[in-house]
Amino acid sequence: MRLLDTPRQIGLTVTDSLLLAPVKSVTAVIGLSSEPQPCHKNGCEECGKKNCEYRR
Questions:
Q1: Could you tell me which residues are beta bridge partners of residue 20?
Q2: Computed from CA positions of residues 43, 44, 45, 47, in that sequence, does the dihedral angle turn out positive or negative?
Q3: Domain encompassing residue 9
Q4: Within-domain flag for 15
Q5: pTM
Q6: How deeply is 20 buried, as exposed, middle or buried, from its count of CB atoms within 10 A (0-12, 13-18, 19+)?
Q7: Who wins on pLDDT, 16 or 45?
Q8: Which long-range contacts (CB under 8 A, 24 or more apart) does 18-25 make?
Q9: Are 47 and 36 in contact (CB under 8 A)?
Q10: DSSP letter string over 1-56?
Q11: How many Å apart are CA 52 and CA 54, to the nearest integer?
């Protein structure tokens, strides 16, 4: 939350008990990295994970 500066940017804070305020907030962080990452979206055929619930 500090990294994204959410209190100033969108008014979203975290309470001492680690709850989001306002209560109806939904928060997600996608693709936050200090180094570039290669794309691995090649489908189930290229993935080695055999127990994935999304596997075709």
A1: 14
A2: positive
A3: 1-27
A4: yes
A5: 0.39
A6: middle
A7: 16
A8: none
A9: no
A10: -TTTTHHHHH--EE-TTS-EESTT------S--SS--------TTT---SS-TT--
A11: 5
The Cα–Cα gap between 6 and 11 comes to 6
Identify residue 48 by its one-letter amino acid code.
G
Average pLDDT over residues 12-26: 81
Q: Is the pLDDT of residue 23 over 80?
A: no
**Domain-located, residue 52:** no
Count of structural domains, the chain: 1
Q: Which residues pair with 13 in a beta bridge?
A: 21
39 inside domain: no
